[in-house]
Amino acid sequence: MNKYRHYYSFNRVLLLILDVTLIALAFKLSNLVRYGDLELEHQYNIFFVLFALVWWIVSGFSNFIFRVDGLITVNKKLSNLINAFVMHALVLASCIVIFNLEELSRLLLLYTYLSTVMLIGLSRLVIFQVFKYFTNSDMAHTRYVIVGTGPAAVALHQTLDHNDELGTKFMGFFDNDVQVGNPYYSQVKGDMDELKEYCLRHSIDEIYYTKPLTDKSQIDDLTEFADDNFVYFRIVPDFGAIVQKEVNMYFYHNIPMISVRKEPLELASNRVMKRIFDIAFSLVVILFIFPILLPLIALAVKIESKGPVFFKQLRPGKKNKLFVCYKFRTMRVNTSTELQATKNDPRITRVGAFLRKSNLDELPQFFNVLFGDMSVVGPRPNLVSQLEHYSKVITKYKMRHFVTPGITGYAQVSGFRGETKEMHLMEKRVEYDVKYMENWSFMMDMKIIFLTVWNMIKGEKNAY
């Protein structure tokens, strides 16, 4: 979709300008309701700049905030917008505390934020509807034909045909020696010799070539024809016999490469961003929370049962490299620490049950994060015995060790926490761990952290 790249950039700028305008309107309206005047005082003019700047920065973490095209589902657009507002509110609240902006009216801030959410949300809905209307009109349709009638051609046709918002209009297949029994026989407009004339007569915009890439002369001929007649020529190679799932194709200099697994953390920039956040977050916890809770938890652990305050255990980390994982001790000293905790486990103390329920037993793992053995968010590090067992019976189990393990993870906040005595429970946990790897984003980490805190507050039935 590179031909739309400049459109997306232009679209992003226009929507950012619209958002800032709506934020300014929200400030004016809120000031009118609160103080009966449209003119903002000096401190609110300054705060408006901060408000808009934070929105620009936060929205930059998700390129899809400023996308209104049909390539992204409405649910995904709405989810991205909600995530942006949540992140914006958190950052803005931090700025208010850091810069000690106590003179600002809390009621005015509430009016302003509610107005901003409403105005930007309504503007997106209106834009989505206008875009949908435009893309379904005749003037917006891109006419295309498909060369070939094989599996790749059929899959491409079904994909484009079921997404009306793309604004495309299918004009037919072209292929030699098509069998009468082919389900798409009636949509075949001719053979390869008739393709060029048909494209010129019907003003075709795009040609999708799905045949095997063995006929170089045919591909070169169609490429030249497309260039001479202002038609986009796109090659859709059929890798169905080799790859059975979604892949990523990219170029290293001029060499095409295919990655059979999407993994955003393959990019060094994403890994650096995640590591910087891990260091900053773990330092905040270690410097400001750990010193307060450590004496209380340590005293409670020591009073109830004999033994050390901390529990240390080898766990498999990234690429199965073993590291020492730290926790507050929640069990009585025993010799069966490689056995997973179960419901009503007699080894768990009363203090330990509370620590497990509230996730406070994992507080020392922020030192693991600081040392680089763990991340704040990632697949939970299982026992060594579980690695040895499940890697033999669950196909994708080892994949979860491609990334650094985390204190909390996507599987845990999705309901797959605690005991995994049944195979399907571990399979679901692995499934969500792989989903996390393939769909990682900074906003996804923020969402998981928020859900983890929320679950700590409300409590989890599987936390024992």
From TrEMBL:
- The answer to whether keyword Acyltransferase applies is no
Query: What parts of the sequence cross the membrane?
Result: 12-32, 44-66, 78-101, 107-127, 279-301
Which top class of enzyme applies to this chain?
Answer: transferase
This protein's membrane topology, according to the annotation, is: Multi-pass membrane protein
User: So what EC number does this one have?
Assistant: 2.7.8.31
Q: Keywords for this entry?
A: Membrane, Transferase, Transmembrane, Transmembrane helix
Q: Where in the cell is it found?
A: Membrane
Looking up InterPro entries in the UniProt record yields:
Bact_transf (IPR003362), EPS_sugar_tfrase (IPR017475), Undecaprenyl-P_gluc_Ptfrase (IPR017473)
Question: Which molecular function term from Gene Ontology is one that the record holds?
Answer: undecaprenyl-phosphate glucose phosphotransferase activity
Domain (Bacterial sugar transferase) spans: 274-457
**What family is this protein classified in?**
Belongs to the bacterial sugar transferase family.
Name it: Undecaprenyl-phosphate glucose phosphotransferase
State the organism of origin.
Pontibacter rugosus
